[in-house]
Amino acid sequence: RRGSGTDRIVGWDDRAAITGLILSPSGAPLPGAQLQLYSAIVGSPREFVATLTSGAGGEFEWRIPRGPSRAFEVVTSTGNGLATARAAASLAVRAGLSFAVSDTSVRSGQRVVLSGRLSSGGLGLPADGKRIEIQAWSEADGKWLPAIGAPVTDAEGRFRAAWRVKPTSAAGVVRLRAAAIQESAAWPFESGKSRPIRVSVRR
Fold first, then answer.
1. Which label site among 20, 27, 40, 132 has the fewest CB atoms less than 10 Å from its CB?
2. Which of 157, 140, 154 has its CA nearest to residue 192?
3. What end-to-end distance do the CA atoms of the chain give, in Å?
4. With contact defined as beta carbons under 8 Å apart, do 10 and 93 qualify?
5. Dihedral pair phi/psi, residue 123, rounded to 5°
6. Is 122 helix (H, G, I), strand (E, B) or coil?
7. What's the CA gap between 79 and 52, in Å, rounded?
8. What number of other Cβ atoms are within 10 A of residue 194's Cβ?
9. What 3-state class would DSSP assign to 141?
10. Which of 50, 20, 41 is nearest to 90 (CA)?
11. Residue 130: count of CB within 10 angstroms of its CB
12. Closest by CA position to 24, among listed 62, 50, 57
């Protein structure tokens, strides 16, 4: 049968699979059918990935390895005079980010170092690095806002920046996180955010 899959969005550390069922025109399962799986990253040509064989009930499955957003197509020639069958699906992957603060208990005016790493398996990183947005939660606005100038990753995806707590800051808690924003469709990841870190500020 011919069909089209539904897009799915997963995180960098999540796992997904290509699954399907191949049937004859009469609706009967087709066991032992040979299927060719192809995939393509945005801006790249389609590549052959694997040959799959359907099970006794016509089912097939392939675990998708960690990587960027991709489009998939499964193609099979069912034989016995039947037409070639194909189905397509796409997987969107959020960028993975680790994030750390050198000190989570600081005084007003103190300088701390923010660091982390963009997880992309070395794929899709611009030659001059990927811009990382450091955000702080604004209670007044009810949303995350840029906190400092955006650092840029190195060739390994690492980033580092300095943040100085305003000398006039009142005691309390500041929530910070790092975000990799999809600024161009050519970047093969969805926007991703790190887990927030709470920084206690003392007077």
1. 27
2. 157
3. 68
4. yes
5. -95, 140
6. coil
7. 15
8. 22
9. coil
10. 41
11. 22
12. 57
- Are the C-beta atoms of residues 163 and 111 closer than 8 Å to each other? yes
Query: In the beta sheet, which residues pair with residue 34?
Result: 53
Query: 């910070």: which residue's tokens?
Result: 176
d(CA 14, CA 11): 5
**Beta carbons within 8 Å of 98's beta carbon, 6+ residues apart:** 116, 117, 119, 194
Cα distances (Å, whole numbers) of residue 138 to 79, 146, 164:
62, 10, 17
Q: What is the DSSP letter of 43?
A: T
CA dihedral 152, 146, 188, 123 (to 10 degrees): 30
Residues in the chain: 203
- The neighbouring-strand residues paired with 51 are 36
67, burial (CB in 10 Å: exposed 0-12, middle 13-18, buried 19+): middle
User: What is the reported pTM?
Assistant: 0.80
**Predicted confidence pLDDT, tens digits, the chain (203 residues):** 434 444 789 999 898 999 999 988 888 998 998 999 999 997 789 999 999 999 999 999 999 998 899 999 999 865 555 567 888 999 999 999 999 999 999 998 899 999 999 987 767 788 888 999 999 999 999 999 999 888 999 988 999 999 988 876 677 899 999 999 988 877 889 999 999 999 999 87
